[in-house]
Amino acid sequence: MDASLLLSAFVLTLAMSFLVGLALREYYVAQEHLDYFGSVRTYTFIGMLGFGLYQLDSDLTYGAGLAGLAAFLTVYYWRKSGAAKPGMIGMLTALLTYLIGPLALTVPAWFVILFVVSALFVLNAKERIRTLSETITQREVVTLATFLTLAGVVLPLLPRETIAPWLPLTPYQIWLAVVVSTGISYASYLLQSFVFPRAGLLLTGIIGGLYSSTMTTYVIARRTRDTGAPLEVTAALIAPSGMMYVRMIGLVAVFDRSIALQVAPLFLALSALTVVVAWLMWRRVPAIARAAAPRPTAHRNPLELSSAALFAVLLVVMAVAARYAMDTWPDMGLHTLAMIAGVTDIEPFVLSLLQFRDPVPPAQIVEVLVIATAANNLLKALCALVFARRDAGVRAATVLVAVALLSLGYLAF
Does the predicted model carry a pTM greater than 0.85? Predict the structure, then answer.
């Protein structure tokens, strides 16, 4: 190895090993555990040991060093257990530190840093991990495991041939769209359920918009009909639509980056406008009223197989309808279907177009996206008028209609 690269790897090993030892010492001090394995110097020496043994030409040498360290730690743990002081954090951290040297010599520096930072995060997240483990139900764990199996095992095995002339999609494309859409929804679900379980009304609307802007608007409208400050309810009804544009950009980018880049300037501008208007309204609400606002939760776990199956069925239906519309009414068929999709479910329709074997012209897909999102905003405006308290519903509907008209004006001019 080049001398400069060898020196860089050695310095990185020293720095990361020292950081691990320092973080572990602070962890034990915070936990008031005074009897623990090793000091900052001990972990630095362990990192140097792994680095030096890996430099020797025999893999057996490094393996023997690892076995010797593991044997020493085993004896140490046995003695601690006999003294009724069990605990493996220090010993496991020592083994991880022994790996830093070989990693610094064989992988990029960013991965070594990520490796150490991840270990430190897990080390210092004891209470959060405990709280999370107590919060997650067995049903959610089983659902996630099932979904990971379907996404990581079943998806790669699905056929990639078109199902039929009237359905220009493959089984792989259908399920890939399901995985991507539900994956984004699941990220929002985790944020709302575990990271911000006590989020205020505005933040609930923002996070919920990443899950489903239509459902979030409906739930907030229904559950705040007789409660909450009018301006805060208005802000919460508007915010999900702003995040809808962000979600659509992300979904489109997965399947066609060029189209995502074309539609991103308009969608980001509309998203920023909507969120800023919502924030300005929220800022006018007294702090006491914000604290007293209800915190509706809108969503079930999006990884439930029933939700995934329904999305797949809608995707197939929309794909068949889109093909029929293009063949029957080449000029207006897709635009009409986009308006219908906007008041039902946008994503299956858009994702089906992005995956056709006979590609739809990018300009037409951009038009369809704009029309569908505008129609969806009109639907949410109607939802706000019908289900929300009158003063908040009228304000929210006015903003949503204005945003829809702006997007349609973009197409016209």
Answer: no
Question: The dihedral of CA 300, 254, 141, 153: what is its sign?
Answer: positive
8 Å CB contact between 217 and 383: yes
Q: What is the C-alpha separation between 249 and 241, in angstroms, rounded?
A: 13
Please give the Cα distance from 394 to 384 (Å, whole number): 7
User: In sequence order, what are the beta bridge partners of 167?
Assistant: 164
Q: For the chain, what percent of residues have pLDDT higher than 70? A: 85
Question: How far is 404 from 141, CA to CA, in rounded Å?
Answer: 40
Strand, coil or helix: what is 141? helix
Q: How far apart are CA 325 and CA 12, in angstroms?
A: 61
Where do the domains of the chain lie?
Answer: 3-124, 137-412
The pLDDT assigned to 35 comes to 62
Collapsed DSSP state (helix, strand, coil) of residue 286: coil
Q: How confident is the model at residue 57, as a pLDDT? A: 67
pLDDT of residue 36: 67
Higher pLDDT among residues 371 and 313, named by residue: 371
Q: How many CB atoms lie within 10 A of CB 170?
A: 17
> What is the total residue count of the chain?
413
Picking from 112, 96, 115, the residue whose alpha carbon sits closest to that of residue 104 is 112
Kindly report the backbone phi and psi dihedral angles of residue 278, in degrees, each rounded to the nearest multiple of 5, phi listed first.
-60, -40
Which class for 77: exposed (0-12), middle (13-18), buried (19 or more C-beta within 10 A)?
middle
Residue by residue, DSSP assigns 239-252 as HHHHHHHHHHHHHH
- Give the other-Cβ count within 10 Å of 156's Cβ: 8
**Amino acid code (one letter) for 396:** A
The confidence band for 33, taking pLDDT boundaries of 50, 70 and 90, is low
SS3 203: helix
Neighbour-count burial of 291, counting CB atoms closer than 10 A to its CB (0-12 exposed, 13-18 middle, 19+ buried) = exposed
